Amino acid sequence: MIIVENVNKTFGNKHVLKDFSAKFYKGKCNFIIGASGGGKSVLMKCMVGLITPETGSITFDDRDFLKLNYKEKINVRKDIGMLFQNTALFDSLSVEENVAFPLRMFTTFTEEEISDRVNFCLSRVNLINLNKFAPSNISGGQKKRVGIARAIALNPKYLFCDEPNSGLDPLTSRLIDELIKDITIEYQITTIINTHDMKSLFVMGDNIVFIHQGNKWWEGEKEGIRSSENNELLAFMEASEF
Amino acid sequence: MKFLQNFGEYILFLKAVFTKPEKLKIFRQQIITESYNIGNSSYGIIALISTFIGAVSTIQIGYQFEGSLLPDYLIGRIVRDSNILEFAPTITALVLGGKVGSSIASEIGTMKVTEQIDALEIMGINAASHTSFAKIIGGVITIPMLVLYAMILSLVGGAVSGWLSGIISVEGFVKGLRTGFVGYNVVFAMTKAYTFSFIITSISAFQGFRTVGGALEVGESSTNAVVYSCIGIIFFDFILSQLMLF
Predict the structure, then answer these.
(1) Alpha-carbon A166 to chain mean position
(2) Min CA distance, B114 vs chain A (Å)?
(3) Final residue before a domain boundary, out of A133, A155, A177
(4) Which of B75, B230, B122 is nearest to A81 (CA)?
(5) Is residue A64 part of a domain?
(6) Residue A242 has what pLDDT?
(7) Where in the sequence is the domain holding A167, given as residue range(s)?
(8) Where would I find the beta strands (DSSP E) of B3-76?
(9) Alpha-carbon span A80 to B122, nearest angstrom
(10) Would you list which residues of chain A are within 8 Å, Cβ to Cβ, of chain B?
(11) Cα–Cα distance for residue pair A135/A138, rounded to 1 Å
(12) Are residues A85 and A138 in the same domain?
């Protein structure tokens, strides 16, 4: 479980996160939704440690990330997998080298063990016979799947997905959604998904946090969204044609 | 004020870069790859430039000697000293500042804007060190070798152009090369080469690493890397000449 409490973040005069608090549960797909510029990406970057908030706490299963020293933070980060919006695969490495990268950096596995693990992760995301391809030579959907394979290579406890469906066709989008959902349940990962895609939310969302102008505007299960009396949330849903 | 801020950021960047690598085996492999990339992509252009600089300097010095009472073999001596002391290390560094510097800055800059650097950070890897340390070491190993190679080729180019143009015979040129040879000049040139290689690789890596934005900013970082590397080279050329030759 990840608990975010009273997080504040400003950039110059702009107060992007205002006393933000939320809980993200283990074994569930936790969604962060909201309009562009509302603070979703900043919140996610704060949670993975790319941005340090001015105040507040971010706790990963009793480990207060902001109070940890450098080495302790690295240990937490080894438990984090992240799927980036643009996949962020390493251009200079092949598909299999991308997936093997965290294993080579953080484990004492032999080359044979690394190869086995890479093949397992790639088959888990239904990618076969692409091991030697460069990221530039595969499709957007395949890149996303390689990104997921790399994110789960070290058996993470926490999986962050930034706009996992952006730029994908509806079928591929559905495949990626199902994959993330299956992995979350199978490995009991705390998954946090930052998205605008309401279709994904209604298919796989367990816990929803609606962020508006840096504030948590609404939190609950997807079934509660339609009956919500929160005008901003309803306007957001209406604009998404749901 | 802005210069001081940038310089401070550069020092902090270097502090982050020079840390113990996560995995020595991977680091060694990275150094080999970077050294190979720098050397393999540059030896052709360096050969061409240094040979022609040697050739041109021979012809120009021969032109200065025309009608004088000075012996011809001195042309070889002057070509040797000017190439070893200045042309080979400085021109090579300026060329590599453009070629290697822009390549390093654009590679790291692209990694930055495509979130590959963020991916490294989230994995718990020191991204500054992982992306730049091996490039700096690779440059410091390879660029001085290219300077040495440029020195030799410039003298060969000088001898050939002197012979082809009829300014000086090969024997006369070689006699000049062997007259009053000072080994310290090579030490001085190699000191410059090591200094310049560090300047090129570290400044370019720094410029790449601080890229924020998109393709336009990557181009800007690449240009800045070349400009600041060249300024650093000519500045330290002056400082080292003052410190080591007098």
Answers:
(1) 13
(2) 6
(3) A155
(4) B122
(5) no
(6) 52
(7) 1-59+159-242
(8) none
(9) 7
(10) 48-50, 73-75, 77-78, 80, 82, 84-86, 88-91, 101-102, 104-106, 160
(11) 6
(12) yes
Domain endpoint, select from A120, A155, A190? A155
Asked if residues B170 and B163 have their Cβ atoms less than 8 Å apart, the reply is yes
Neighbours of B213 (CB within 10 A): 12
Per-residue pLDDT of B166-221, as tens digits, reads 999 999 999 999 999 999 999 999 999 999 999 999 999 999 999 999 999 999 99
- Assess whether A165 and A46 both reside in one domain: yes
Give the pLDDT confidence of A113-150 residue by residue, as tens digits. Answer: 999 999 999 998 888 889 999 999 999 889 999 999 99
Write down the ipTM of this complex. Answer: 0.88
| Pairing verdict, β A80-83 and A63-64 | unpaired
B116/A contact by beta carbon, under 8 A = yes
Element (H, E) at A208: strand A207-212
Please indicate if any CB of chain A lies within 8 Å of the CB of B81: no
Residue A57 CA to residue A68 CA, distance in Å, equals: 11
Residue B114 forms contact with A (CB below 8 Å): yes
Of B22, B23, B119, which is closest to A82 when you measure between CB atoms? B119
Residue B122 with chain A: CB contacts under 8 Å? 48-50, 77, 80, 82, 160
> Cα–Cα distances in Å, from A107 out to A3, A43, B30, B118, B133?
28, 30, 18, 21, 21
Question: With the C-alpha atoms ordered A180, A182, A183, A187, is the resulting torsion angle positive or negative?
Answer: positive
pLDDT digit string (tens) for A22-50?
999 999 999 999 888 888 989 999 999 99
